[in-house]
Specification:
Keywords: Calcium, Membrane, Transmembrane, Transmembrane helix. The chain is mostly helical. The protein has two domains: 1-40 and 53-146 and 354-384, no CATH class; 173-330, no CATH class. It is 50% helix and 5% strand. It has 16 helices and six strands. The protein has helices spanning 22-38, 43-47, 75-98, 109-120, 127-138, 149-175, 192-196, 211-217, 227-234, 242-256, 266-281, 292-306, 323-326, 330-345, 355-360, 362-365; strands at 15-16, 19-20, 52-56, 183-184, 224-225, 367-371. α3 packs antiparallel against α4 and α6 crosses α14. It is globular, with a radius of gyration of 29 Å. It binds 2-acetamido-2-deoxy-beta-D-glucopyranose (6 copies) and calcium ion (2 copies). One 2-acetamido-2-deoxy-beta-D-glucopyranose binds next to loops.
Length: 384
Amino acid sequence: MSCTSYSINGRLPHCHALGFSTLDLIIALLLLFLISQNRPSNPQNHNRHHRRLKLRSNFTFKATQKGHDPIPFDPIIASIERKREDKQWEKKHYKEFEGAPGEEAQPEWEDFMNAEDYLNDEERFNVTERLVVLFPKIDVDPVDGYVTELELTEWNLRSAEREVMHRTERDMESHDKNRDGLVSFKEYEPPTWVSNSGNGSFGYDMGWWKEEHFNASDADGDGYLNKTEFNDFLHPADSSNPKLIKWLCREEVRERDTDKDGKLNFKEFFHGLFDLVRTYDDEDHNSSHHSNAAMERPAQTMFSQLDKDGDGLLSDEELLPIIGKLHPSERYYAKQQADYIISQADADKDGRLSLAEMIENPYVFYSAIFTDEDEYEYGHDEFR
Ligand SMILES: *[C@@H]1O[C@H](CO)[C@@H](O)[C@H](O)[C@H]1NC(C)=O
Ligand SMILES: *[C@@H]1O[C@H](CO)[C@@H](O)[C@H](O)[C@H]1NC(C)=O
Ligand SMILES: *[C@@H]1O[C@H](CO)[C@@H](O)[C@H](O)[C@H]1NC(C)=O
Ligand SMILES: *[C@@H]1O[C@H](CO)[C@@H](O)[C@H](O)[C@H]1NC(C)=O
Ligand SMILES: *[C@@H]1O[C@H](CO)[C@@H](O)[C@H](O)[C@H]1NC(C)=O
Ligand SMILES: *[C@@H]1O[C@H](CO)[C@@H](O)[C@H](O)[C@H]1NC(C)=O
Ligand SMILES: [Ca+2]
Ligand SMILES: [Ca+2]
């Protein structure tokens, strides 16, 4: 072994009797370490940055009045996505509320990276095996070897409710300044567009996130919103609090009441509300081809049905029967997604799914989405 072969950066090798000095050894080890860090030793690791497979439903809701995210089918995917969302939220939250992100605001990406590896590994995350495990959890009412629309709707709904409650908890954390598990109206800071919107000559969403909305959500009237009440506040359409449902009707009237008499006349109903009800009822969303004139008669019929006291105007109470159609609930979306899944996977067209049908069509439940390095916002470049 010749000393010169260990010459580093033109330094003269310190050849001692035993070989080279401790300093040289340290430098050599350090160099080895640096080389091993820079070399893409693990091809899988390298690949991950370029092409990543994700499993999530590619289901998209038909255009109702407001968009809705697809509901995760598999609790494992849901929890992975939730974790990722939390990290994004933390990042944004700390930026907005505390200025520069501190040490503690730096997300721990490892969890998420491991999850990606896991999903990408077909042997570890085997969609067939997942469906076999999940099937008996969905087929419960009754247990008969088939998943019906109702069973799948309930499954989706529970998943959606978990998602919603999780977001509510996270939101609550940021508003509950004194950490007592309750949010007072004073603690609650409405989004900035609320205070900028003035008294809402533009109509839409004018009374949302204001004190009346808050008070209506406060079911027991103690001046604070607990977790249930805060969740209702954020999602009035899914609430069972009658005060809040009434507020929602009142708000609907206020937004449409162009002549400001506190009720809706036929014209105010026809231009706006009726379209929403029709869109909700019309599964195929195909009636936009109909002319206004053709729709006037059914609109008149519905109007007179709703106008219980026959004064030719709709009050907020008279809107109660259709408020669920103006503001679709989580159950509505859960059913829509169930219908879609069944329509895609129901090979023998008996209106329900057997385990075999589900296994034959795994990507109705798990859509593969390939991405090419579009994930910079998740901070993966920090790992280069
Ligand atoms: C979802 O993905 C599957 C398979 O990749 C495809 O057949 C289906 O058309 C997609 N659905 C939508 C709504 O994009
Ligand atoms: C997934 O599991 C099924 C059933 O256990 C098996 O037949 C199939 O080969 C597995 N797929 C992969 C990619 O390992
Ligand atoms: C909104 O209306 C209330 C009373 O109706 C009034 O006191 C308040 O100043 C108005 N705010 C704005 C921004 O116009
Ligand atoms: C909301 O309730 C509080 C009492 O808890 C009351 O002081 C306040 O005036 C109410 N605000 C509105 C807009 O109803
Ligand atoms: C919140 O308060 C309501 C009564 O307004 C009660 O029914 C509900 O159980 C409470 N929720 C929690 C999480 O304590
Ligand atoms: C939608 O409407 C068009 C034109 O009225 C019609 O040709 C088509 O068959 C309808 N589609 C469905 C799914 O009803
Ligand atoms: Ca069943
Ligand atoms: Ca309360």
